[in-house]
Structures are given as structure tokens and as C-alpha cells.
Amino acid sequence: MATRSASSAGSTIESNWAAEHERSIDALRRDVDFLAIQIGPRNLYHYAALAQCADFCERSFYDMGCTPFLQGYNARNRVFRNIGAEIEGSTRRDEIVVVGAHYDTHKNSPGANDNASAIAALFQLARAFAGSRPARTTAAQGRAMALAWRLFSATARKFSCACGKSLLAPTAQANCATTQHQ
Q1: Distance (Å, rounded) from C-alpha 121 to C-alpha 54?
Q2: Is residue 3 part of a domain?
Q3: Which domain holds residue 147?
Q4: Phi and psi at residue 175, to the nearest 5°
Q5: Which H or E run includes 141?
Q6: Quick check: helix, strand or coil at residue 167?
Q7: How many structural domains compose the chain?
Q8: pTM of the shown model
């Protein structure tokens, strides 16, 4: 009787895992399809699409139950946004794990692998942690920084460091300030 019960429990666990695995694959595919096919190229040359993608990132964090934070900067008479969310840790909240991806694309590329797949993976990780209290604080950021690095390198380096500093402990902030000027 005990063997039968254990076998039955194992089947239920495997079945639940398989269902969750399928849901994850579907969510990843849905995010990549939306970004690469429905939105397409998203960068300075396709600014409206870049803004639409930023809105999608912000809305996605809300839909996961996370409160997004926005970090904006101006360059070339346009506003660019980084969108992030944080899930506070339970026992080691001062230790922060940062996961990031950028949502812009190279000029006319629809960006399925640059960078929709990275954003989709970032969102899937956020979905997995949403509603839980991991030991460490988990910060996720969808960033337009690759675009900024290529086009506005000096401004972007300063901004990127400021973004990182806003998420890091004081020791790491000091290190960032040191490397910013190199």
C-alpha cells in the first residue's frame, strides 16, 4: 500500500512539473513572438516600437504582481527607459541578485535572439520568483542600455553605473564609482 501511494505521489509531481514546464515554454514563446514579430525592430531608428516595448516590460512586471521602477535618461532629444522590479529577500535581503537583459535591437533586426529571448527569460525568472520570498533580494531589469552604450557611450557609462548603484550594497557602490572614471 505504501509503495502504491508513493508511486501515485511521484506521478502527480511529474505531471505537475510537466504542466508547469509547458506553461513556461508557452510564456517564453509568447513573449518572444510579441517582441520580435508584433513589435519588431526597437531602437533609436524605430523609437515608437522601443517605447511600445518599454510599456510592455512595465506592464509585464505589473502583471506578475511586481511593482516596476523606472529609470529614464535623455539622449538625442529622446527619453529612454530602463524598467526594473525587485522581490525583497526574506533572510538575506541586503544581498542582491541582479538579473538584467536589454530590450532594444540592432537597427532593422526584429531581435528575436537580440534581445527578445533574453527579456523573455528575464520575465520567466521574475514569474518564478513572484509571490515568493527568496532568501536574497532579486532585482530584475529590462534595459535599453545596449542602445545607449553604442550611441551615447560617455553618458551611458555614467547612467549604467548609476542604475547599478541604485541596486547594489554600499561596498559595490564605491567600486562602481571607482570604475566609472576609468
Answers
A1: 16
A2: no
A3: 10-180
A4: -60, -40
A5: strand 136-143
A6: helix
A7: 1
A8: 0.73
